[in-house]
From TrEMBL:
Signal in keyword set: yes
Protein family (similarity comment): Belongs to the peptidase C1 family.
Domain Peptidase C1A papain C-terminal: 81-207
Protein name as annotated: Peptidase C1A papain C-terminal domain-containing protein
Length: 208
């Protein structure tokens, strides 16, 4: 039986002014620890110390809710886990699996995670016959019970919203794909490239 090791790295934000830059001491220690494990990848800094803590925390938009979703029954099973698995190879006809969306200067990762998973599942369930990009903006802007838009949201509420209300289609920024494409521009988060640099302040949540 193959073994799968999941390492969950939880970082604790120290109380203080949210406008002060992120301290490098904790970050450097965490990077050194990860790299000391000698895994298949190397950790490094994505942002320099000039980025405000409020902005970086804002990009980590996923939030946890204590109830009622936390009371769902736990499910456990023993599975044969392969040495490696690549979803792009398992379902090569599903283009959404290969696509990497850019949330821009908005803490919408919670919305992106949900709509990308939904898009992939629709394609997988239809054996590649239905290729759809579910709109991140529609979820981000219109789900009033999901949280605070670009300031963060609850993934479990987003799944519930899709189940009970539904979501329209919508592609990347300026893609003109679907009913409601993403309106926040893509940007370079921590390197110099062909895109404009990201703002150091979170954008306003688009209107529904």
């Amino acid at each position: 039986m193959g073994k799968l090791t999941l390492i969950l790295l939880l970082t604790t934000c120290i109380a203080g002014s949210l406008q002060t830059p992120m301290g490098s001491q904790t970050t450097d220690a965490l990077i050194d620890y990860i790299n000391s494990l000698d895994t298949t990848w190397k950790a490094g800094k994505n942002f320099d110390d000039s980025y405000p803590k409020r902005y970086l925390k804002g990009l980590l938009g996923g939030r946890r809710r204590s109830t009622p979703y936390a009371k769902q029954p736990a499910v456990s099973d023993e599975l044969e886990i392969p040495e490696s698995f690549d979803a792009r190879q398992q379902w090569p006809d599903c283009l959404s699996i290969k696509e990497i969306r850019d949330q821009g200067s908005c803490g919408s990762c919670w919305a992106f995670a949900v709509v990308e998973a939904i898009s992939d599942r629709i394609c997988i369930a239809s054996k590649g016959k239905q290729q759809v990009e579910v709109s991140a903006e529609n979820l981000l802007a219109c789900c009033s019970s999901c949280g605070d838009g670009c300031e963060g949201g609850f993934p479990e509420s987003a799944w519930s919203y899709y189940k009970n209300t539904g979501l329209v289609s919508g592609g990347l920024y300026q893609s003109k794909k679907g009913c409601q494409p993403y309106s926040i521009n893509a940007c370079e988060h921590h390197v110099t490239g062909k895109l404009p640099p990201c703002d150091k302040e979170l954008r306003q949540t688009p209107k529904c």
